[in-house]
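User: quick one, fold this
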Amino acid sequence: MNRRGYRAERWSYAEVYERASGLGHELEQRGLSKGDRALLWAENSAEWVVAFIACVLAGVVVVPMDDAASSDFARRVAAQVQAKAVFCSRQHAGDLREQSPFIVGELGKGLKAASSFRSPELNHSDILQIVFTSGTTAEPKGVVITHGNVLANIGPLEEEIRKYLKYERWVHPIRFLNLLPLSHVFGQFLALYLPPIMSGTVIFQNVLSPAEVIETIRRERVSVLVAVPRMLQSLRDKIKAEWDQQAGFEEKLIQAADKHYFRRWWMFRRVHWRFGLKFWACICGGAALDRETEEFWRRLGFAVIQGYGLTETTSLVSVNHPFRVGKGSIGKILPGREVKLADDGEILVRGGGVANARWAEGSLQPIEGEQGWYRTGDMGALDPEGNLYFKGRKKETIVTSAGMNIYPEDLEAALRTQPEVKDCVVVPVTTNGNEEPCAVLISRADRDQLSAAIDRANSKLAEYQRIRVWQVWPEPDFPRTSTQKPKRQLIREISEAKIQSRANGDRSTEAIAQLIGKIAGRTPAELARNVKLDEDLKLSSLERVELLSALEERYQVDLSEARFAQADSAGEIADLLQGQPTQGRRYHYPGWTLAWPVAWIRAVAFYVLVRPAIVLLGWPKILGRNNLKNVRGPVLVVSNHIDDVDVGFIQAALPARLRHQLATATGGEALELLRTPEANAAWWRRLFSRVEWFLGVSLLNLFPLPREAGYRRSFAYAGEAVDKGYSILIFPEGRHTTDGKLNPFRSGIGLLTNNLGIPVVPMRIDGLYEVKKAGRKFARPGQIQVRIGSPIEFSTESTPEEVAAALQRAVAQL
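Assistant:
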């Protein structure tokens, strides 16, 4: 399953294979044959898997490219491997237009298995893929992975998994939420190779904010989360932010240290309920998980399974057993692999999964190794039970002037135990020709408190490890790679520049500059604090909405839309971001309102309560209902907004097949205040408010659309409702009219329309404003009119801003 906009698309394994077979036939028809190369450059999706398998079936070598890679790097790789086909997202198509690329997001359309297609004969030594791992400034070098390399890794894992399949039927299907990029071999293992062995379900999601991840885990009944350590750390911070205010949470964490699993689960049952009762484990890869985060999840009653491997070893070398987890270790060595430690502690690996060639300068080049041993460049340790421990990268080891080796991970572990430190990276900086460790911190406190925190961390370290140089990172997060690893080299360069007083410009707006460049495509070389968003950058209202969404996503906060709209410069946005609390208001989206018992009750309530009330208030005249004659839904209904009773008039105008499957967006702040009234209100007032909320969400199927913040979650809920067959009613003005005229449509309606991908039905209510202005409660029959326009469908090429303007014109012209 993967999400397309706000909609969910579900594919069976049979559908994936059928379309991959059809695409493989298409590649054959285009003249590609065994050994030719194809570039695959797109975000995670079911169509990505189709493209990958199609290449395998056709014997074509896949060259997967990270979705975040630069266009220059992608072009250089394509040229170096002499790619005869390119698969890319529509976003990247313009960069490779000369290659006539396949658009990955459109591969599901019209592909059928071809009876005449026959796959070429493949053997263990044939190349499966070439994974490029070098940076964008160096000459691209790719690791050559053969079919035999992958099979050597899958075999032992499949043998171990099959021992437990008899227990799997009790929790079938196991659902994996895979947040690792498919362009990396570890992501491929946990999405393409292992889940089919268990007939598991794989879910792809490209939105990585903790709130969205938790909601997906709960909604899709996810069993296992596959992610990098950074995501587990972000989720930990999210949980602590929600539960730290509750009395006894920290005490429970301490008490849970030595408790039995079931006891720990019961102690934190509310956390498990938040994630959904089927969620039980996290698989962590891409980097070593710090001990504090691993222990946090273990004490909550979740299993944390760590794996270790590299691209050159075709991913996994060792993995933790899900039911016999070695604390702090990266698991036991898998069968079929040999591991030993060099004299200096470097991890050496040998086995069938180890790649023996690289692709560089347009040809294959052997990977040199002594007697087949591959030097990983990682430092490790082995305990008597055979558990492997990661001690850091060899090349990241800091060698002091005294000749002492310092591993940054040891210092980072000590710093992360301090509550004032949100995150940290320790990098070497050169002063007077010698290296020493510099701690770069993301802070939760002021500088004096940080100084005290570093003193406490130093007390846990040996004398030669002590942190004497440190600084605060100016942004809410470190720059990261696609697998969420901090870009240590960049952090080091910036840190050294600051220490040597060579830093120029204000870097607090650097991330904002990057986001504006991605959204608007016109970022200045250096974005100063006083650059005006409207005057200098010419940001449209819709681009502001997209920037707001991007900032919320990157920094995992809820920003006030009203305060954001008032920000005039890049500096004001940076200040707003820095001062924004990390935990926004939580809005409730009860799923039970979409279930069949409530839907039936709602249909009865319409005829018993709502319709009689509408007839009494003013029997409306319905115009244009024939425009919906052939419409079966779901549709997006948009209308002008006059009063709270608008919902009733819209429902009365719609045909029954749409009326009884309709969810209505309403003011989120007001709706949430009914559900959670102020504590100082009288008890009877609080009770009355909760009853109002219950009746609203159950009988009118209302859901919150916040005006201040959190609209993305509301839009996502609308997508869930559409997936279940519901139409959506929304009032794009966002507020009642005060003069009878149509208020400007909020730009978010264009974003919602494009992401739902369903027809839009414009409607307009006339006559109600005049009744309201006259101060009357009732209108004569026919005085109020409800006009229904023809459904409108927008092409994928339409911009959200164009959609919003077109919808406003459509409503105005009714």
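User: anything notable?
Assistant: The chain has five domains: 2-122, 152-351, 397-499, 507-579, 591-812.
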